[in-house]
From TrEMBL:
Keyword Repeat among record annotations: no
Reaction equation(s) it catalyzes: UDP-alpha-D-glucuronate = UDP-alpha-D-galacturonate
Family of the protein in this entry: Belongs to the NAD(P)-dependent epimerase/dehydratase family.
NAD-dependent epimerase/dehydratase domain mapped to chain residues: 100-337
Name of the protein: UDP-glucuronate 4-epimerase
Length: 437
């Protein structure tokens, strides 16, 4: 059976009525029907105007690109052929393999993690809503890449409970790698609603299904280095305070950590949050600085390099994607099972949080110098004061906990990681055939 997710489902369909009233009835009935038709017509016109007003009015819709508008999109799923594809993608092909639902599988980290799991023989099913936060054609290209490795990505939203329930009916996932999220620090000021929709409502929707699944899966999910916010103690350790987020994005990730605590406490779900530190690499996100700096340097456009007060350095603990993938797999492999069943906790379950960084902060101006050398083009640098839109000045991970417990050991420095990124970038956007970002 084909199912669809759409807000439009709630609006009754009406065209049949109008057709019927055009049939040749006796005169009175016709008049009665025609006035009924008029009444119905004008009622619908009136409702239409109100709906248009509601969606357009700035006061009733304070979020100009409200993500709920995105979920007006219709996703098709269901049916025997679809279920067969889902099962085949999720089939474990190695001894001791795990069966993983990867949310955000067409995203940057999601694609790399899905491919790595599939390559080692785990069962992998992707889920992604292919939203247009950045160029969806890049997500489609990642999807095509995953298809070659045998990973199927179901198109749907993590807020669609009936889809999630169906997926757990078709496949007994042992693990969920939850990477679907609204990312980006600065965009949170433009579209705050999308952060609440994906990072809070979407996470809760997923946890609700996981808590009732039998067996309950293990969940590993993407938190963020941004939870350290205005924390000035460096390097950032998991024990440091995280109650001063500098952006709504950071606040939603911090909220995710608290929500994880609740579901672990009440339902016995095994939950591991990974605080990623500025992940970069091939197939990366065009909204991130290293990516659009590359694009703009090549185009001869000027780039803005932020600096802190008193010409202070802004730096990031840039972390290469392959290192992050190893950290994700380490977290999945070391996670203990959830303890609940039938939606009820049977005993204490594991609740963990780890930093996944590189432990080597690099000033943004140095990042630009590396790109200039790799691209053999001088950047048009514009030094700007760090805008007050959510960015923090400095990130630096203490990774000793992840090292000890996950065997996490980053091994790629920014120079060699960017070299791989630039090589990918130039071949992907070869000769300007595709427009970057
Ligand atoms: O570590 C993380 O958790 C976060 O890392 C990145 O956030 P961010 O570090 O701000 O990454 P970019 O947006 O690529 O910025 C990198 C650096 O370049 C700087 N920048 C950015 C944009 C710009 O025009 N100029 C500029 O100097 C930023 O201030 C920052 O220091 C991701 O975008 C987040 O999704 C992720 O959660």
């Amino acid at each position: 059976m084909s199912k669809q997710m759409s807000h439009l489902d709630n609006i009754p369909s009406t065209p049949g009525k109008f057709k019927m009233e055009k049939s040749p009835y006796v005169h009175n009935r016709l008049r009665w029907h025609s006035s009924l038709a008029k009444l119905t017509f004008w009622s619908f016109m009136f409702m239409g105007v109100i709906l248009i007003f509601f969606f357009r009015s700035p006061s009733s819709n304070p979020l100009p690109q409200d993500p709920s508008r995105r979920s007006l999109r219709t996703f098709n799923w269901g049916g025997p052929a679809w279920e067969k594809r889902v099962r085949s993608s999720a089939r474990i092909r190695s001894h001791n393999g795990i069966c993983v639902l990867v949310t955000g599988a067409a995203g940057f980290v999601g694609t790399h993690v899905s491919a790595a799991l599939k390559t080692r023989g785990d069962g992998v099913l992707g889920l992604d809503n292919f939203n247009d936060y950045y160029d969806p054609s890049l997500k489609r290209a990642r999807q095509a890449l995953l298809e070659q490795t045998g990973v199927y990505i179901v198109e749907g939203d993590i807020n669609d409970s009936s889809l999630l329930r169906k997926l757990f009916e078709v496949v007994a996932f042992t693990h969920v790698m939850h990477l679907a999220a609204q990312a980006g620090v600065r965009y949170a000021m433009e579209n705050p609603g999308s952060y609440v929709h994906s990072n809070i409502a979407g996470f809760v929707s997923l946890l609700e299904i996981c808590k009732s699944a039998n067996p309950q899966p293990v969940i590993v999910w993407a938190s963020s280095s941004s939870v350290y916010g205005l924390n000035t103690k460096v390097p950032f350790s998991e024990r440091d305070r995280t109650d001063q987020p500098a952006s709504l994005y950071a606040a939603t990730k911090k909220a995710g950590e608290e929500i994880a605590h609740t579901y672990n406490h009440i339902y016995g779900l095994s939950l591991t949050g990974l605080r990623f530190f500025t992940v970069y690499g091939p197939w990366g996100r065009p909204d991130m600085a290293y990516f659009f700096f590359t694009r703009d340097i090549l185009k001869g456009k000027s780039i803005s390099i932020f600096e802190a007060a008193n010409h202070g350095t802004v730096a990031r603990d840039f972390t290469y994607i392959d290192d992050i993938v190893k950290g994700c797999l380490g977290a999945l492999d070391t996670a203990e099972k959830s303890t609940g069943s039938g939606g009820k906790k049977k005993g204490p379950a594991q609740l963990r949080v780890y930093n996944l960084g590189n432990t080597w902060p690099v000033p943004v101006s140095d990042l630009v110098s590396i790109l200039e050398r790799l691209l053999n083009v001088n950047a048009k640098r514009k030094i700007m004061k760090l805008p007050r839109n959510g960015d923090v000045e400095f990130t630096h991970a203490n990774i000793s906990l992840a090292q000890r417990e996950l065997g996490y050991k980053p091994s790629t420095n920014l120079q060699s990681g960017l070299k791989k990124f630039v090589r990918w970038y130039l071949s992907y956007y070869s000769g300007g055939k595709k427009a970057a970002g």
